[in-house]
Design a protein that fits this description.
The chain is mainly alpha-helical and about 675 residues long. Among the domains are: about 175-180 and about 190-335, Leucine-rich Repeat Variant, CATH 1.25.10.10; about 585-665, Leucine-rich Repeat Variant. The protein has 40 helices and no strands. Helix 9 (about 195-200) packs parallel to helix 12 and helix 13 (about 255-265) packs antiparallel against helix 15. Residues about 1-25 and about 35-50 have low confidence and may be disordered.
Amino acid sequence: MEETGLPASSALPIQPMADPFPVSMSLDDVQLPAATTSLAAESSADKIYVPTTHLTQGHGPLTAHAITLLIEELRHQDLGTRLHAFRQIPVITNALGPKRTREEFVPYLAEFCDDDDEVLLLLSSQFGEMVESVGGPEFASALLPPLEQLAGTEEQTVRSNSIASIVKIAAQLTDQQLLEWVLPVLRRLATAEWFTSRISASSLFTSLYPRLPDTVRRDVRQWFRDLCRADETPMVKRAATGSLADFVTCIEPKLVYEEMLPVLQRLSKDEQDSVRLLTVHACINVAKIFSKENKALNVTKMGPILKGLISDPSWRVRHMVADKYCELGSALGPSIAQSDAMLDDFVKLLLDPEPEVRTAAAGRVGDVAKLAGEAQTIKKFFKPIGYGKQPQLSVLQQIIVDQDETTAFTRAALSSVLLSVCLVLSPSSIHEYILPIILHLLQDPSSDVRLNLLSKFETLPNLRQLLPLDELSEPILTTINDPDNGLAKNAKWRVRLAVIQLIPTLAKQLGEEWFDARLGETCMAWLGDSVWSIREAATSNLAKLAEAFGREWARRNIIPKVIALGSHKSYLFRMTAVFAISEMAACLGAELTTEKLLPVVVKLANDSVANVRFNSARVLGSLMTSGAIVLPQPLVEHTLSILKQDPDADVKYYAEQALNDINKQE
């Protein structure tokens, strides 16, 4: 490597050279360093390296000298310096030109395939962006060898980036170029001795197969089947199984049945549960293909596979089936999804011995009910099933009455989807089957269960037509306000916050009169909560309630309480009054805000606590500039002028800001 000619001392900053070699001219004098096999071959004791960061930040075209420094920094011992240099690869290739890039620079970069993972991650991405840098798609083959090498590294993210770059390059090639250049790469990766290359190969099939001629497709499918069946390395088999779901969508339906179905059957019985669980995704896509071509195959071929997965000894496999049950049902078709056999299998998942499986299944009850229809939903979910811990109860009743500590998550999952079942049932069926379960869940000892149920009330636009709210109002009130176990006074502030956010929805559904009598005081009590997030949400609630019930309601019920807060002995309550006024001003109208609330803010601007004063100054400025009050208001400007002389720096700052905003508007 040639010496750079830098001075011995590197203490002085290096300025961009006003040198007559801009990148727009010939850069034949830029020499690539001699090939080395290790970073250790470069000794920092022999050379002085000066980071080129300042040379690549807004100083116009780089000189030949700067490009030379960048190339040298690719082998710098400091990782940060190397990473910076690798990010400048587009700058280097632009300077070298296409011919030197593909003939000299790309082979030089290929020497770095044993570098740190961070460098390889960056390099594998850069190769995918270099098609134009090497002269266009007709010369893109120069980029494939280093990417093939990177696709065999041990770091998974590097392999993924390399495959993504190969796919990106392949998309720019003609079908003939793909056949000549990329297909050999796929073959070598798929048949490589080292397992990491075979893992990478499994991600390439779906992208390449549709563009290959029929003469080679048979071989490609055989390579894929070998990865799925003959490969004894679990990691390779997992990668191939994960790609199977997408690969079958590229293959002719007849070949899916003849070649890929046996592969799926074998993988669904693999000794590794991590392989078996991945077959669920493939089952969905294969079932969709069979539904279009030959529905009988879903019964004769896919049915046994799904039966085996549902009764799999591994809970992880059963959990995957429960999680994807609705997608499986949709893929198999309505006749199978509504069959007794299919729904009985789902009921078994709801009563699975593993809580994770039960929870996943419970979270899909609403969607399964939509697939099953009203008659089958009632029969399978709300009628006694004759087995389980309490055979005389329905499956959903067995879930909600089981108060074991391991079942809380299952009940919470069920409560979050229970109301969606109402969309499937008739009003009489809702009253007979859903209402008792709702009443039971509202008394559940777990706050998450009750909170999940209440949070879904807003998802039903015609709630009053579906549920008898008169029968639910008292249980809902008890759930929120119970002195011992109520959500409004829950020890976890996040639970209280969630309840506050539900109040406007409940108020709209249950009506103004019910809210005033039952929840009005609770909402005002939240304004004095010890947690700031609760107080903030409570002030926002007041604005939403005023918008829902109207200005006259706000005049009677909210404004007097906010005014009282402004005179509270605790500064936290007084400051909350300021925030509440700021939130409500927009929905109360200029006249009402000016008459009732503006005097409160002006008064609090002279408060003894600096926090109250500067927040009052901010709100006064906002009220004056937002059109929320009647103008002009000389008293407000006079108050802000006084606050500009306040001894507290924050008060002075916000008062000055408010006055500046007012003057700009004028």
